[in-house]
Design a protein that fits this description.
13 strands; HAD-SF_hydro_IIB; 19% strand; Alpha-Beta Plaits; 9-stranded mixed beta sheet
Length: 295
C-alpha cells in the first residue's frame, strides 16, 4: 500500500506531462527532443517581439486542417479559425494562405475576409477586395487540360483513386486506393500528365499536374510579399508553416530572413524549414503564440 501511495504522484506527473502539446524541434536534427509549448519563446522570442508587424504565410491542408481521405471532408477547427481571424484583424499582421487547392476552394474552407488567398500552388491570387492575379498559361498547354483529365479518368482512375480538377492544375489522388495498384497507377499518371505538356510531381499520396511555367509556392510568396505586404519585406518579420514538399520552396525563399516550420512527425525528414512541428494541433499553438504578440 505504501509503495502504491508513493507511486501515485509520479504517475500523475507523467500523465500531466503527456498532455502537453509537442511543439518544436530544430529541423534536420533527428536526435533532438520534442519540445513543449513554451519553447516557442525559446525559438521565436528574440525574433518576434510584442508589437512587431508580421507577415504570416500558411499552407492549408495538413497545416491549418487535418488531412482526410477526400479534400471535401477537410475542416478547419473553429478555434484555429478564431485565432487566425484575430491575427488577421490585429492591424499588426499580414496574412496569406498559399494552397494547392483552387483559390476559391481554399477561401471557402477558411471563410475569412481579411486574408489573401493563393491557389494552385501560387498560380492564382485572390485579394480581400476581390481583385485577382493569375499566372499566364500557354494556350497550347491550356487547350490540353480537358484531354489530360479525360485520359487520366479512362486509364488510371480505379480501385479508389480519383482526379481532382482545379481548373488550371490537377491532382491524381490515390490515398484510398488499394496499395498493390499504387506504383503502377502513379507511374502511368505521371506519363499521361507529362505527355500533355504539364509538369508532374509527387505529393501526399498523389501526383500533381501543373502547367509548365516557372512558378511555385516560393515565387508566389515572394510576389505576394513584395506587392502586398511591404516593398522592404525582407527586413520585416515573416513566418511560414507548411507540411508538404511543395511548401519547401517557401521555406527556401525566406531562409535566413524569416522563420519557417515544417509540419511532420518524421524526425529523419530533411527540410529547409528552421523547425519541425508534429501536428495541426501544434500549428494551432503556434498561432496562439503569435496572437499573444500581435493582438
Amino acid at each position: 500500500m505504501a509503495r502504491s501511495t508513493l507511486l501515485a504522484p509520479l504517475a500523475c506527473l507523467i500523465f500531466l506531462n503527456c498532455l502537453k502539446p509537442l511543439i518544436s524541434w530544430p529541423a534536420n536534427d533527428k536526435d533532438a527532443p520534442a519540445m513543449s509549448h513554451p519553447e516557442f519563446d525559446q525559438y521565436l522570442g528574440d525574433y518576434l517581439q510584442a508589437g512587431d508587424t508580421l507577415a504570416l504565410l500558411l499552407d492549408y491542408d495538413g497545416t491549418l486542417a487535418e488531412l482526410t481521405s477526400h479534400p471535401n471532408l477537410t475542416q478547419m477547427s473553429d478555434a484555429m479559425r478564431d485565432s487566425l481571424r484575430n491575427i488577421a484583424n490585429s492591424g499588426k499582421a499580414f496574412v496569406a494562405v498559399i494552397s494547392g487547392r483552387d483559390v476559391d476552394g481554399v477561401k471557402e474552407k477558411i471563410g475569412l475576409e481579411n486574408v489573401i488567398y493563393s491557389g494552385n500552388h501560387g498560380l492564382e491570387v485572390l485579394y480581400p477586395n476581390g481583385t485577382r492575379h493569375n499566372q499566364g498559361i500557354p494556350r497550347d498547354v491550356a487547350d490540353n487540360f480537358d484531354k489530360m483529365i479525360d485520359q487520366l479518368n479512362r486509364e488510371v482512375v480505379h480501385h479508389g483513386s480519383w482526379v481532382e480538377n482545379k481548373r488550371v492544375s490537377i491532382t491524381f489522388h490515390f490515398r484510398e486506393a488499394e496499395q498493390q495498384y499504387v506504383p503502377e497507377m502513379a507511374a502511368r499518371a505521371k506519363e499521361i500528365i507529362e505527355s500533355y505538356g504539364y509538369r508532374a510531381n509527387a505529393a501526399h499520396a498523389s501526383v500533381e499536374g501543373k502547367p509548365p511555367i516557372q512558378w511555385n509556392k516560393g515565387l508566389a510568396a515572394e510576389y505576394i510579399l513584395g506587392t502586398s505586404f511591404d516593398a522592404n519585406w525582407r527586413q520585416r518579420k515573416v513566418l511560414f508553416a507548411g507540411d508538404d514538399t511543395t511548401d519547401e520552396d517557401v521555406m527556401r525563399m525566406i531562409k535566413g530572413t524569416g522563420r519557417s516550420f515544417r509540419v511532420t512527425k518524421d524526425k529523419d525528414l530533411v527540410t529547409s524549414a528552421d523547425y519541425k512541428i508534429p501536428s495541426v494541433d501544434a500549428v494551432y499553438h503556434l498561432l496562439k503564440w503569435i496572437e499573444s504578440r500581435v493582438v
